[in-house]
Amino acid sequence: MTNVNRKIVLASRPVGAPTADNFRLEQTAIPAIAEGEILLRSVYLSLDPYMRGRMSDAKSYAEPVAVGEIMVGGTVCQVEQSNHVDFAQGEWVLSYSGWQDYAVSNGDGLIKLGMQPTHPSYALGVMGMPGFTAYMGLLDIGKPKPGDTIVVAAATGAVGSMVGQIGKIKGCRVVGIAGGEEKCRYAKDVLGFDDCIDHKADDFAVQLAAACDNGIDIYYENVGGKVFDAVLPLLNTGARIPLCGLISQYNATELPQGPDRMSMLMGTLLVKRIKMQGFIIFDDYADRYDEFATEMSQWLAEGKIHYREDLVQGLENAPQAFIGLLNGKNFGKLVIQTNQAQ
């Protein structure tokens, strides 16, 4: 075992889009553990859009990362050393140890994954926060019915890909929105979407309207911006909008240009009796995780859910990969392999 713990800290708060200068790689000694503690060695680190919000000191649903502190993030780790009766050396756990190689834990908040999990990194994606977000947002807020039309942006991403596939399982017509021909082809050919529209196309709004000729019953919102502008006039009476993210706005430093559309939005919500509800997955639905895990595990075993990871090697590459994530450069759930499994 090395004596060095690499960690990536927030060097400064970004103004607009994050840059490499906002991060700093530091090295410290690996901490010793006391009685009742375990030393975790990370193997996989999840990168997710919500982390951009934690880099800002604007008021939000969670405390920001302090300048000079380790970037937050979900991790899949192995127990390197254990002085805890409930954890064995070599055991896999789901943790929240952030952008670093090693962390000390007293066991609180850890989820056991076993000694030899088949796909340990799945706990960060399809079986973790993104899959859970897709499941609860669509089923509890969206309430899909057979024959409904669902539209979801970032259709090949960690959440969007799950939303679309769950929608198909529930008997809905699913139209995805993605960036580029390759991603749209994957959404249709592999994920089983009925259609997928490239948001980079000059006539994107026209193509979306043609694909949703009977309107939109559920729009799963995780992007915002011009995508929502194109969706709004297509929403049917009684439409539902689960809102889990607004990635197009995370780097904004001012309000968008153009006329104020708030009155149009409010009028549409009123006249069409549309339900639009934001949610924070573990704040609002933590008590239903077992329900999700049981059903998602079954769908995976039956081949009803396809899952793709975008795996990047090396903790040192996390900042650049995260910057790419905010620009839509990932293809699938973005995961950093920080270390090799033992």
Automatic annotation (TrEMBL):
PANTHER family xrefs: PROSTAGLANDIN REDUCTASE, PROSTAGLANDIN REDUCTASE 1
A Pfam family the protein falls into: ADH_N_2
Full protein name: NADP-dependent oxidoreductase
Biological source species: Photobacterium iliopiscarium
Ranges where the Enoyl reductase (ER) domain occurs: 19-336
Record carries keyword Oxidoreductase: yes
Keyword tRNA processing in annotation: no
Organism phylogeny: Bacteria, Pseudomonadati, Pseudomonadota, Gammaproteobacteria, Vibrionales
Keyword terms: Oxidoreductase
Coiled-coil residues: none
GO molecular function: oxidoreductase activity, acting on the CH-CH group of donors, NAD or NADP as acceptor
